Amino acid sequence: EAQVTQNPRYLITVTGKKLTVTCSQNMNHEYMSWYRQDPGLGLRQIYYSMNVEVTDKGDVPEGYKVSRKEKRNFPLILESPSPNQTSLYFCASSSTGRGYNEQFFGPGTRLTVL
Amino acid sequence: AQSVAQPEDQVNVAEGNPLTVKCTYSVSGNPYLFWYVQYPNRGLQFLLKYITGDNLVKGSYGFEAEFNKSQTSFHLKKPSALVSDSALYFCAVRDRISGGYNKLIFGAGTRLAVHP
Fold first, then answer.
1. Between A39 and B12, where is the model more confident?
2. Under 8 Å between Cβ of B25 and B3
3. Which of A72, B7, B24, B34 lies at a C-alpha separation of 20 to 30 Å from A26?
4. Shortest Cα distance, chain B CAs vs residue A65, angstroms
5. Which residues fall within 8 angstroms of residue B25, CB to CB, at 6 or more apart?
6. Across the interface, do A105 and B104 touch by the CB < 8 Å criterion?
7. Which tens digits make up the pLDDT trace of B36-55?
């Protein structure tokens, strides 16, 4: 089954404790992206990747890091989480970054930073 | 900058009645427009898109959307609503970035509530 998987689905942590949210897709997609969803703000892009070893900042990259060492994986790293990073996070992928392909979304990771 | 607006936070409709979820956009050049749906505790699912061609686009689950260039709108419609259509709906527009690549700009979302 074609899918995007994220782990963990739920995470409660404390300020300053490094964490990683994993994302994996099995569709051989070139493009992957991370979003955060906050009430009234829709989805805002954190980082995206056009292909292996090619990543760039989205609209709200502060406090986040990413890497793309393999085509299927695109982990999101919070080196020192803060309460304002409490949010619902989605990973997404599409076959290309050319804009006309639909994106496939993971089930989401709900993060709470105390 | 490209942008998309969903003017209604919530839309309420009775089951069996037609529904419309509104979306307006602001882009330079030709718009690529998308609708996604989010069911509770799920990720977003693609419904339909307009890239070029017919202004009326048909998508999943009986939904359709009409592209109106003069009104810069891309409203989502369904002739007969189901209770199971209750969800959060997002409109999105392509935004060009460097190197010929693109990203999506999402609206704030509209919650659709279909009452029995």
1. B12
2. yes
3. B34
4. 18
5. B2, B3, B4, B5, B31, B33, B72, B73, B74, B91, B93
6. no
7. 999 988 889 999 999 988 89
